[in-house]
Amino acid sequence: MTEMRVRQSQPLHGRFLVPGDKSISHRAVIFSALADGPTEIRGFLWAGDTEATVRCMRALGVAVERRATGLVVRGQGRLRAPAGPLDCARAGTTMRLLAGLLAGQPFTSILDGDPQLRRRPMRRVVEPLRLMGADIRDTDGHAPLTIIGGPLHGIDYTLPIASAQVKSALLLAGLFADGPTTVREPGPSRDHTERMLAAMNARITVAGSTITLSPSHSPLSPLPSPFHIPGDFSSAAFLLVAALLVPKSRITIEGVNVNPTRIGLLDVLRQMGAEITLSDERVVGGEPVADLTISSGALRGVEVKGETVVRMIDEFPIFAVAATQAEGKTEIRDAAELRVKESDRIATMVNELRKMGAHLEERPDGFVVEGPTPLTGAVVDSHGDHRVAMALAVAGLIASGETTVTGSEWIGDSFPGFEAVLAGSWPLHTARR
Ligand code: S3P
Asked: Going by C-beta distance under 8 Å and a sequence separation of 6 or more, which residues neighbour residue 340?
């Protein structure tokens, strides 16, 4: 177990880069493996979660070569039976997307992972895949999953909860089904899969919240190569909130993915009074990208519920920190999904921030924060959750005294280099080549 010590910060200034988008990195490797030909991927996130995907794809017979700028995936339009269980480590995206991919393959595979991943719910993906005809044995609704691949048929399925992982799993399975697969979403989950499949000439249509995919008779075309992965908004979020909260700060984060399905946090912070500007808006890897500039400033409390929750689902740990500094009450509702992330993010953030003196109250589907409260340095724990660790470290930047974040090693699951950014003298660039 490693721990990270953080002290109150000087004002933050300068220009920053964040690592490549995690969701897009997973998908770029998996989809490129299905293409007929090689794809060079630049800006790939080399981190715990995405490395698990690379390991699994290699075990499925796909050549993936690491390069200084990212990687090359040599897709051949087919996969090979793995020699042993596929280790998804702590990556929910790896396990759920691969469950869909493997359901229609002519071989048996086993998906497994760390104890943390074994605790996360898998029925949400297994049940609709079974409706497609898949033969999957789960372990009381959890991993390990044994997937006895075979013929699949298309289904018309309404997701009970918005989940890009489940949607993507069904679309991946749909590539190998005997007819069209339709997925209906209750809310706008991230649409990287739809964008990527369209760029690879898959037969996919999107009409509002309904996605239909028809199987192709030939392998997918490779993505335009080199394929560039933009910076991860979910990583940028920690720096954005740090600059917002540390007085007299002003920073710019370059090349960040601003896909509307991902930036609910921007909308909410603006509603709270934050000034955030987007500049040099462009398209990178089929995604909208911009440079984000933010200055420190006062915040007022806000209510977050409904569709906005889906568009900022990974940002609640850092949002909780921002809410402790807002004037008045901030209330989060409709967010029970937070309880089945890498940790129970409602309970962990409420309990850990209370140790620093913040006023938070847990609710079944969210939490309530009363602010603003000066924070005091304390010993706080990540609960094995990369985003909880980073959020608490940012809280440490505005707390009096010293904050120790135990279990900080898990930050490497999504943002290698984060500790170096905080440990060095600001500003520092993290490397994304
Ligand atoms: C992800 C989807 C979201 C998100 C996760 C990444 C993806 O999960 O929380 O970090 O890449 O599809 P759900 O599909 O469970 O909402």
From this structure: 120, 121
